[in-house]
Hints:
mainly alpha; 3 helices; 0% strand; Protein-Tyr_Phosphatase; Tyrosine specific protein phosphatases domain-containing protein; Prot-tyrosine_phosphatase-like; Tyr_Pase_dom; protein tyrosine phosphatase activity
Amino acid sequence: IGGGPVVVHCSDTVSRSGVYCSVSIGLEQCKAEGVVDVFQVTKAVRRSKPGAVTTLEQYTSIYDVIDMYLQMNSTYGNFSINKQ
């Protein structure tokens, strides 16, 4: 809201926060570049916050959320990718 920074926190400070940050960064990368590299995005989040995204379930949920977002928005036509 408003384009400013977002504060993210969960009960253990890393697990769900890491998933949220990976999804958010992944969607921004997709909008800017037309592609998303979930592995590299998650790797960068883990460099910043060790312990983030530690389970396969968390990792696959990042893919699932990004995929669902892209499918929903391509269906309704309100998502555009700026390819450069």
